[in-house]
Amino acid sequence: MTSMMNRRRFIQGAAAAGMTLAAPLGLAARAGGQAAARDALAPQGVWPGGVEKPLMPYTPAIKAAGWLFIAGQLASDFETGVAPQARGSGTLAGQLTLQSRFVMSNVARTVAAAGLDLGRDTVRLWQWLTSPHPTMDAFAQGNNWPRISTQAHFAERDAFLAAPGPAATAMGVKALMVKDTLLEIDLLCVDDGGRNIGFGQPAPPPGQAGAVRRGDWIFLSSEPWQRAPAGAGTQQQTDQVLRHLARLAEGAGSSLRRAVKAEVYIGHPSEYAAMEAAWKRWFPDNPPARVVMPYMGLTGGQGRRVEIALTLLAEDSGKTIETVHTSKAPKPFSHEPQAVKAGNLLFFSQQMPADAGGALAEGMARHPNFPYYGLPARKQMAYMLKNVAAICEAAGTTLENVVRRVCFHDRGENFAEAMDEWAAHFPGLKPVSTTLVLGGPLVVPGAHTLLDITAYVP
């Protein structure tokens, strides 16, 4: 200890005298190597050639922590609407074929611009398809089937993917940000020079895996590939799905206790409580970060009430899982932490303009006697980002290191106002973004926006 103090005093004295000290060669090389490793993990934007530039302020793709995050891709030229080469006057299936081909081609170019291969390196795929079904009345009755025929899209998609394929989700939503677009696709790739290992029986459709392992990480598809029991309610189906996912996780070398992030897809917000009751039994302690998305058209078939996708660490991974909490942001109103840190990634639970009791936070709505005053969607976004920044700080990172967001709006009219506020908080590298319109009120009455966020931790 004395020698270390003497060395520190000597260095300080030398600096005061204007002297330059050379570090030992091994120490300098080691420090340089560590800096290079940090730089390789830090967020880097990817702007592919030959792909239409986004109309809104977000980055098409970001590399961070050995992952590649791809923003939602639409069949648009961002000038006229649907791109001319993606337009069709035939059947809906024919139009979906053209749009899927356009989107998957752009996705492949974006992944290639990052030095990766779409077929080999994609581990997680999200597919959002528009449909006028279910109606709000149908959702309220527990009928969550969107009546979407996915075969046309899957046929185009699978031409770009390789076995065993990524873990995947396909959901019906009310609207996308460009008129007449039928689908939006965002995805996640891993940049480790490795390959996907697929698990899961019964086998999912071609081009898709029930479970994928890539290095330390395991990704489980949202589709349980089992018919929902006749008359089964949301709580019973949640039990069934988690039982199935537990088996998949075990077969892939993990377990539900190693889950770091959960995406839960339900129909009407009133189904939240039944899902939550089952969730607490499966995750009594240290639950994963969780985002619950209502008004999802569940494409797996009629009778479905809930689907769940999980991201986990393998049992033999050396990475640790840390629950993140700060008193500077509201405590979650349901059974999830504020965020979970695993390796160099921070997975947030759902962000809404809510207080700890699940009500709309104070000041987030227009005064009833002044119905035309204020910008509530903007104010709500600012409130959520204040909380996100506090959680980032508690996890050892900053708001500027957010790399991905998926944004769900109750109504499309709230998009521009909220996006303008969002972009103002990211003067440098702007996170990849996917924006969807749900068409109905969120779980928190009066909330206009639900955010799903991932950040990089140095």
UniProtKB/TrEMBL annotation:
Checking CDD domains in the record gives: YjgF_YER057c_UK114_family
Q: Which UniProt keywords apply?
A: Signal
Protein origin, superkingdom: Bacteria
Q: Which residues cross the membrane?
A: none
List the signal peptide residues: 1-28
Query: What protein name is recorded for this chain?
Result: RidA family protein
Question: In which organism is this protein found?
Answer: Bordetella genomosp. 6
